[in-house]
Amino acid sequence: MAIRGKAHTVGHHIDTDVIIPARYLVTTDPAELAKYVFEDLDPSLRQRIAPGDVLVAGENFGQGSSREHAPIAIKGVGISCIVAVSFARIFYRNAFNIGLPVVECQDVQARVSEGDELDVDLATGVIRNVTRGETYKGTPVPEFMLRLLTAGGIVGYVRAELARERQ
Amino acid sequence: MAMTMTEKILAAHAGRPEVHPGELIDCTVDFLFANDITAPLAIKEFEKMGVAQVFDPDRVAFVFDHYVPNKDIASAQQCKITRDFVDGHNLPHFFDVGRSGIAHVLLAELGYVVPGDVFVGADSHTCNHGALGAFSTGVGSSDLAAAMALGRLWLRVPESMKFVFHGRPRPWVTGKDLILKVIGEIGVDGARYGAMEFCGDTLTHLTMDERFSITNMAVEAGAKNGIMEADDVVLEWIRPRARRAITVYRSDPGASYVDVREVDVSTLDPVVSAPASPGNVVSVREVGGVKVDQCFIGTCTNGRIEDMRLAARVLAGRKVHPRTRLLVIPATPAVYRQALDEGLVQIFLDAGAAFSTSTCGPCIGGHMGVLADGEVCVSTSSRNFVGRMGHRGSKVYLSNAAVAAAAAVAGKLVHPDEVVRDPVPV
């Protein structure tokens, strides 16, 4: 699975409150949530994001609340993949469960600038910076998580599990 | 193989003799729940999974706590989705306004979680229940939906870290201060993906209420779960409440830990997390004098009866500063009633505090105490991220209930000693 998109960079320890403030958690609609994504971090960020773009972050991206509304809002605004130094655990699960791939990569945040064109290979974890002609070695997405993505997220996975049990 | 408590519980629920950190396992779940914010999304996903009923109606609860009593039409619509689902599926464990409380406090109080459990909740502070010697962790709505359908969940076995608390805490130092101290030391991702095991002689001085506030905040260090051994204090507390059989697991002497930290609490002063990270921990004396607009005592971290008592000890015979607001919100109807019976509510009202029915409201800047630009709040909650309790220009200091009450009286951050020279028993 490969993804190509323009990078948008954010910092370390981006928490779910600045991704989608709790005051907007009165809907589960991705388009509605996308209207407020990153509101308390940088309200102009969502206007710069085009469908297919890649979000680049530092350590511990998505810390805090278990609100799945956070990855839904990010996916809803058009982000196709998040590459970060590390992810908070609940966010990591939530992202794959809703079919938003995320990749861990040590070098990416320090090397990538806003607007760089990135190629992300999920299976190998290799990220190519087309703009700068550089390559970064991230962690390959675990096989189980790739299966989740292929199944379209946890819903597809559970449907397959139930079908297997019924056989 | 020597295993930690966490590994033993997970192995038992994965049907394996042993598990190792890093392994992916499929785990049976003893009990699960969602709240009014996470349930509608879980229900939406559950309904796409092609199953007619939840795996076991007796092991599923829905607890309304965040935006209740409903703050607006949108939140009322969200609650209605869950009410309709509960009615349609005849689910017996449903907690609505008046009978509901903050889920983590309520479900523990009512014995829905017992030592040895694997407990899963669509709320990050589900790690709360580790104080009972259970494996308890927060997940998102879709994971919860999967567990509702299958009765099990995939988990990565976490590496364990051990925190050994030594010494007797000084006056006004509580379990909250201990966990803030730890988070300040290891950072907000210091235990990322891991299990935080808490032990040491200090625990014998801590009641269940204080222990819960320690495991409750494990997620603030990035942990999957926080856990303590089910000792006599736990067993005495849980036995009259337990709805299922109790299994006590202890970590083996040779169990492996990625890190072991010794924490001397005997010299610790009350601490606060300064804005805007739970990891930004300093002694309250270092930030003394910071002017405070609002104080909030409540939440799943510190809305229990002992927090109410501690606040009352500071507030008895005193008044909230004229330029400061104090909100006191007991976590459950039982805590509310007990505070009433013990005369604590009278003390709060006499002091000029607002006292309310249970809700998470202020903690998430949702309703009941939202902050304006530039305002400062001292809160007994667990998170002080930018915009957490209101305007992105507001600031939150996290503290124990005594520090929050003292700040309300002084109108500024102070050590409780400065307000209460001679503690009056109430």
From TrEMBL, chain B:
EC number: 4.2.1.33
Matches recorded under CDD domains: IPMI
SUPFAM superfamilies, per the entry: Aconitase iron-sulfur domain
Pathway: Amino-acid biosynthesis; L-leucine biosynthesis; L-leucine from 3-methyl-2-oxobutanoate: step 2/4
Residues of the Aconitase/3-isopropylmalate dehydratase large subunit alpha/beta/alpha domain: 7-411
UniProt enzyme class: lyase
Cofactors (names): [4Fe-4S] cluster
Quaternary structure (record): Heterodimer of LeuC and LeuD.
Record-given protein name: 3-isopropylmalate dehydratase large subunit
Species of provenance: Candidatus Segetimicrobium genomatis
